[in-house]
């Protein structure tokens, strides 16, 4: 007798020791959260996250060990938008300065600085403490500004700085994410209620997904001490964890239900689900992990962090589906279908048969060549806008102007351009050359004063490290970070800086800043993208070929996933590079897509789409092994898997679409891109392209091999129920 697969052995132990398995899982999740909280999170530093010359500038600056103090800029302007009364503005600045000096959080208050055009007065304030938690200590300063504003009618007094900007953005964006989390949970539950028609059955996948997210967040905190993480990791873990966690539970739960309806005993149904859907979950999770691992080849700290978080949460979700899910189903028994929601329970199909899906599949099965041409043509048409995709880093101009601190930033940079976009010149040289370095930098600054591409409202100050080896200076430009003028000013500064320092022996210099980071990051991704894409395609090809023992299935999987990814990129470019959807999605088009998004989207989409592909093709292969010809196998495989695939896709689209409502443009683009891709994959690929392609290929689907000799379905069914599955690895 053949030894049962590991998925079946694990499921059988969990099902026969349900409370032990549930207790062990609860202890595992609690331990992960405790250890992660105790260890804390190691964030990516500026010098670790930079690439190219801007990354080198960050490392040079970091080597100077400068003491960074939180800086606040208090801007005094006229409410009318014109020039404020000078005497009134000066009086307000004096009163505010006195209030600020009395605060324990304030270290120093500078002299008021009038704007060159007379439209504003700037009061510089330096806070005590470090920059990390300035947002939690800035409220007394904001209260002082508000009090002075109330006592001076006609003046607008607002703050922009280390603490106030972080606080203003965190409050608004934090509310965004809280809203997304609050909406996503009931939305997922509602969709699952429609799928199962019972409250407990709907709650089980959500419970497992949430526990997987919790455990992954704790493990991610531990991993951050090896690979520091970016602030977006928590959001990505939530997004990926809810998506795959619910999906994997759906695969397993739906198959167990199906087998019970066919007459299998409870434990036998669990065995079959573990043998089939359990195996598919392992394969699907492996393909997602393989795809996400490709991000490490980007050789960039942020991508490595996102890859680590995603891999952890997918691995935990797979573990949950294989271990604690069978235990929950065994402990619940028939209660899993209780309490029933009357109307929804009647809508839930009982027989496994459906009239809808055979009708939808008719075109692909009757005229596969024509269906293939039309559906592929439609996807290629959607992909056309991607040919003109422009990539740029996100910046302050992408933020909603409904945020008060963003409007304040606009007014500050309009009056004092040097406070807005700036380039950071970093120089490292022997301490003995300090005087020559400062002289060279002053010559450089004099040269920028004669060029309109640079800001001239204030003379930049040169900073020197305590050991006299590192010097930095911030050179402003009056143009937005992603403008052509800002790009040209960077090019000039990068050409002028080495020339100015040429006579200094042992010197090392670099120009960084937001503009430079965007240019360098985009260029770095363009160079690394072929390696990432090639890795994902090759590993996916090998994985699929080994799973299905068919090179044809592997190649078709690659082609279909490339097609859906290209179409989603086209949708992304069409929506966000133009203005027609601005009111609909509440954003301001910058004419570009966020530079990190296409690569991340490609990897995520390839992994998630492969989930569905593995599940559907496995059902088709199972039907073919049971004696059906290719057309009947395609019909049966897709019809029987359609319910769970559609349900999982609706959950994913719902969760991803919520991210499209957030204020930050990168998350808005991420949500829209993922939702569009999953929708296209579940509808066009699974209903038209895949069945048409497999029907057209016929027996060539299993090239270069052939399927084992067909066996009678009822014979196979008998063997499976009695613990001797006919063919391993079919869901």
TrEMBL record:
Subcellular location: Cell membrane
SUPFAM superfamilies, alphabetized: Multidrug efflux transporter AcrB transmembrane domain
Domain Membrane transport protein MMPL: 89-348, 401-714
InterPro entries per the UniProt record, alphabetical: MMPL_dom, Mycobact_MmpL
Transmembrane portions of the chain: 182-200, 233-253, 274-298, 310-336, 364-387, 529-548, 555-576, 596-617, 638-659
Pfam families: MMPL (PF03176)
Membrane topology term: Multi-pass membrane protein
GO cellular component: plasma membrane
Cited PANTHER family: MEMBRANE PROTEIN MJ1562-RELATED (PTHR33406), MEMBRANE PROTEIN YDFJ (PTHR33406:SF13)
Protein name: RND superfamily drug exporter-like protein
Organism: Streptomyces laurentii
């Amino acid at each position: 007798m053949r030894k049962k697969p590991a998925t079946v052995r694990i499921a059988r132990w969990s099902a026969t020791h349900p409370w032990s398995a549930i207790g062990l899982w609860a202890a595992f999740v609690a331990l992960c959260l405790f250890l992660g909280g105790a260890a804390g999170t190691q964030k990516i530093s500026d010098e670790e996250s930079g690439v190219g010359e801007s990354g080198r500038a960050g490392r040079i600056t970091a080597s100077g060990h400068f003491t960074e103090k939180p800086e606040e800029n208090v801007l005094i302007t006229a409410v009318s938008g014109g020039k404020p009364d000078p005497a009134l503005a000066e009086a307000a600045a004096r009163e505010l300065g006195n209030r600020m000096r009395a605060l324990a959080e304030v270290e120093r208050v500078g002299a008021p600085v009038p704007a060159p055009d007379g439209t504003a007065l700037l009061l510089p304030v330096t806070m005590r403490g470090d920059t990390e938690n300035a947002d939690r200590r800035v409220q007394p300063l904001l209260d002082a500004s508000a009090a002075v504003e109330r006592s001076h009618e006609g003046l607008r007094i607002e703050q922009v700085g280390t603490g106030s900007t972080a606080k203003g953005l965190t409050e608004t964006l934090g509310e965004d994410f809280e809203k997304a989390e609050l909406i996503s949970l009931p939305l997922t539950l509602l969709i699952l209620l429609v799928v199962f028609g019972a409250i407990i059955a709907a709650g089980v996948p959500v419970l497992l997904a949430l526990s997987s997210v919790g455990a992954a967040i704790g493990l991610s905190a531990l991993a951050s001490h090896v690979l520091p993480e970016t602030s977006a990791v928590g959001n990505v873990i939530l997004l990926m964890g809810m998506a795959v966690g619910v999906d994997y539970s759906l695969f397993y739960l739906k198959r167990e239900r199906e087998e019970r309806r066919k007459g299998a005993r409870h434990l036998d149904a669990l065995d079959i689900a573990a043998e089939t859907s359990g195996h598919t979950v392992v394969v699907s999770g492996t393909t997602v992990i393989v795809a996400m691992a490709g991000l490490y080849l980007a050789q960039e700290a942020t991508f490595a962090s996102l890859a680590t978080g995603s891999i952890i949460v997918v691995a935990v979700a797979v573990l949950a589906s294989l271990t604690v899910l069978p235990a929950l189903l065994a402990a619940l028994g028939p209660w899993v279908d209780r309490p029933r929601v009357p109307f929804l329970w009647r809508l839930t199909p009982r027989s496994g048969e459906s009239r809808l899906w055979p009708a939808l599949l008719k075109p692909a099965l009757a005229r596969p060549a024509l269906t293939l041409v039309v559906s592929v043509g439609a996807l290629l048409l959607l992909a056309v806008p991607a040919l003109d995709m422009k990539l740029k880093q996100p910046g302050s101009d992408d933020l909603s102007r409904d945020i008060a601190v963003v409007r304040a930033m606009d007014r500050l940079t309009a009056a004092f351009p040097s406070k807005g976009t700036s380039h950071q010149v970093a120089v490292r040289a022997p301490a003995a050359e300090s005087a020559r370095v400062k002289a060279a930098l002053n010559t450089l600054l004099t040269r920028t004063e004669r060029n309109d591409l640079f800001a001239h409202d204030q003379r930049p100050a040169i900073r020197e490290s305590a050991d006299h080896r590192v010097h930095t200076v911030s050179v402003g430009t009056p143009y937005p970070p992603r403008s052509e003028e800002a790009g040209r000013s960077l090019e000039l500064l990068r050409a002028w800086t080495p020339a100015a320092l040429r006579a200094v022996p042992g010197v090392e210099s670099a120009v960084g800043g937001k503009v430079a980071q965007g240019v360098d990051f985009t260029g770095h991704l363009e160079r690394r993208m072929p390696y990432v894409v090639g890795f994902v395609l090759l590993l996916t090809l090998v994985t699929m070929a080994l799973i299905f023992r068919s090179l044809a299935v592997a190649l078709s999987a690659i082609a279909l996933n490339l097609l859906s990814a290209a179409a989603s990129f086209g949708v992304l470019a069409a929506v966000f590079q133009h203005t027609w959807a601005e009111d609909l999605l509440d954003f301001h088009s910058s004419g570009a897509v966020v530079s990190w998004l296409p690569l991340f989207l490609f990897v995520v989409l390839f992994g998630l789409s492969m989930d569905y592909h593995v599940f559907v093709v496995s059902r088709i292969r199972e039907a073919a092994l049971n004696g059906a010809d290719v057309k009947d196998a395609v019909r049966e495989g897709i019809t029987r898997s359609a319910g769970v695939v559609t349900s999982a896709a609706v959950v994913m689209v719902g969760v991803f679409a919520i991210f499209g409502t957030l204020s930050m443009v990168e998350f808005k683009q991420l949500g829209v891109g993922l939702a569009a891709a999953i929708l296209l994959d579940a509808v066009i690929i699974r209903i038209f392209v895949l069945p048409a392609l497999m029907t057209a290929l016929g027996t060539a689907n299993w090239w270069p091999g052939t399927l084992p000799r067909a066996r009678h379905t009822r014979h196979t069914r008998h063997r499976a129920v009695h613990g001797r599955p006919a063919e391993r690895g079919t869901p």
